[in-house]
Design brief:
- By secondary structure, the chain is of the alpha/beta class.
- It has a single domain (4-108), classed as STAS domain (Transcription Regulator spoIIAA), CATH 3.30.750.
- The chain is 39% helix and 32% strand.
- It is built from four helices and five strands; from the N terminus they run ββαβαβαβα.
- The protein has helices at 28-39, 57-72, 84-92, 105-111; strands spanning 4-10, 13-22, 44-55, 76-80, 100-102.
- A five-stranded mixed β-sheet has the order 1-2-3-4-5.
- β1 (4-10) and β2 (13-22) form a beta hairpin.
- It starts with a strand and ends with a helix.
- The model has no long low-confidence stretch (mean pLDDT 93).
């Protein structure tokens, strides 16, 4: 299943709605989208992962890379709405403590302005 990305803006926060499976064969467009956003000056990025069914180590690696890229550009990357399977993977790997994770889009968008 390919990974689909849709980008939208809300209160100066760029939201990427992600759907599909984040794996070695599908993560390239995600990496390119993060790079494109940073190049265009976007620094507040919210990854809406409600549509991500699962991920593998390559997908996890891309999340870490995106976090590093965005914070390295003095930006802020947050995550919205993991599905249980993805949430379980991040908890087991202890990466849940690295990311600022929200379950509500309104609260997530507000948190960029706090």
């Amino acid at each position: 299943m390919p990974l689909t990305l849709q980008t939208r803006e809300r209160n100066n926060v760029t939201i990427i709605d992600i759907k599909g499976v984040m794996c070695l064969d599908t993560v390239r467009p995600f990496r390119e989208k993060i790079s494109e956003l940073i190049s265009s000056g976007k620094r507040k990025i919210l990854l809406n992962m409600a549509g991500v069914r699962t991920t593998d180590s390559a997908g996890i690696g891309e999340l870490i890379s995106a976090f590093t890229t965005v914070t390295g550009a003095q930006g802020n990357l947050k995550i919205l709405a993991f599905q249980k399977r993805v949430d379980d993977i991040l908890r087991v790997t202890k990466l849940y403590t690295v990311f600022d994770v929200h379950n509500d889009e309104d609260a997530a968008v507000r948190s960029f302005h706090d």
